[in-house]
Amino acid sequence: MRSAIYPKVGDKVLILRPAYVAGKVGVILDREMLSGATFSDRWLIQVDSENIVVSLIPNEFEVVNGENEIL
User: Fold this and answer.
1) Cα 44-14-28 angle, rounded to 5 deg
2) What is the pLDDT of residues 6-55, one digit of tens each?
3) What is the predicted pLDDT for the residue at 66?
4) Out of the domains of life, which is the source (predicted)?
5) Which of 46, 48, 63, 68 counts the highest number of beta carbons within 10 A?
């Protein structure tokens, strides 16, 4: 079940996919921008426990509040 909360910069998220980061928590950095200054439907997320940023679509993560409480 995906969160009904629209993602925004600074939100804490629980990553559902892909498998190599599934179950980890991250923070939304920004929307992904395409050439021509248009936004894609993807979000750039900094994974807390890794030194990586992933680009995910909204059904690949859920917005959480506090200690992994899904909104």
Assistant:
1) 25
2) 899 999 999 999 999 999 999 999 999 998 889 999 999 999 989 999 99
3) 58
4) Bacteria
5) 63
Residue 58: CATH number of its domain: 2.30.30
**How many Å apart are CA 68 and CA 14, to the nearest integer?**
7
Residue 41: CB partners within 8 Å, gap ≥ 6? Answer: 57, 58
DSSP 14: E
69, 18 Cβ separation under 8 angstroms: no
Ordered strands of the 12-15 beta sheet = 53-56, 38-47, 25-34, 12-15, 61-65, 69-70
Q: How far is CA 37 from the centre of its chain?
A: 21
